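Hey, resending since the last one bounced:
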Amino acid sequence: MKKTKICIIIRGGIGVGYKNNGVPVLTKFIENISENFDLTVFLMIKPNDDFITNKYKIKFLNETKKRKIYFTKIQFLNLIRKEHKKEKFDLIHAFWGHPAGTFAVVLKFLLKLPIIISLQGGDSVYIPDINYGLFKNKLRTKFHHYIYSKADILNVLTKYQQTKLKSFGYLKNNMKITMYGSDNQLFVFKNKKFEKPYKFIAVADLNRVKDYKTLLKAFNEIKNRTDANLTILGIDVLNGEIQNFSKELDLNNSVNFEGIVEYKNVNLYFQKADFLLHTSVYDAQAVVISEAHATGTVVCGTRVGLIADLENYSTIAADVGDYKQIAENALSLINNPEKYYELQNNGLEWSKKFDFNWTIKQFESYYNKLISEAKNNTELLSCNRD
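The structure tokens again:
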């Protein structure tokens, strides 16, 4: 049986970076969704030369001399239109509100196709302290609200992200909440003794959004009151600033910066850890929370993303930047193992219910519903003309 054809638009994150890790959750999503759909993935960032897949088609602009940005955008749209002429797509799914979401809306009008826009992070907010997010001023906010309003489904990852989006004035009713579950074949629970030294882990790139200074200050408070160590996994984009801050706090003997780790090996670090420390100033979700739950690693952090959604059920949270309360939260669990195990067990149950297979099934249902509705509308218009 011929598969339904889906056009995926992503700026990048597929087949790039260390070991072609890209954005692991997006790579996994596309691989899984391609099992039941015929996918063509259009990338604005060329994948690594050694990245190969036979599960779906990849299209991108060939490298030439530097183009003016408007010319590149037109060429990218034409690339998708040409592929559509060869064999028509049934639906467009864009990841990130801009630029992918903007392309999807233009193509919706040109090709008369249903579209899904999946918001991923900074496309839902603006945080002036770190100049992060799309909604920097009223004009930009109004433009992106218009783009989002044209999506047949605007997917957000958490209730927290939905609330943030509404706080910036987006009130349309085309939103659905579908988070990324964990790959429970890769992220596996392993029993571990809850004892000194307590083992903390942080899994996120070293950047302004993840606010590692708050994380290190919180860990310093914890270390001053109990025997503990911290392992940090992630790419450093701050040129050693966080490592130097760790030295200032005299934490070098207790903190290990592992740098980037191949995605398939991250589970091994989780299985040894008691706590995930996660202190972002903002997250739409943070997939790492789902992965921590699947491995029985209790999550302690700031009230953002999935931590906020699951607070007091399987996570324990404090306000953004409140390192003292983050430390107190972790110490309270160390002093109350019964509560620690309650959060751990709740996290394990949640990860079984909302695993990656659940995520795929949700999007498959969205695809089928929108394609069916579009087909029915086309048939109805045809009947009316007759």
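The chain has a mean pLDDT of 95.

Sorry for the duplicate.
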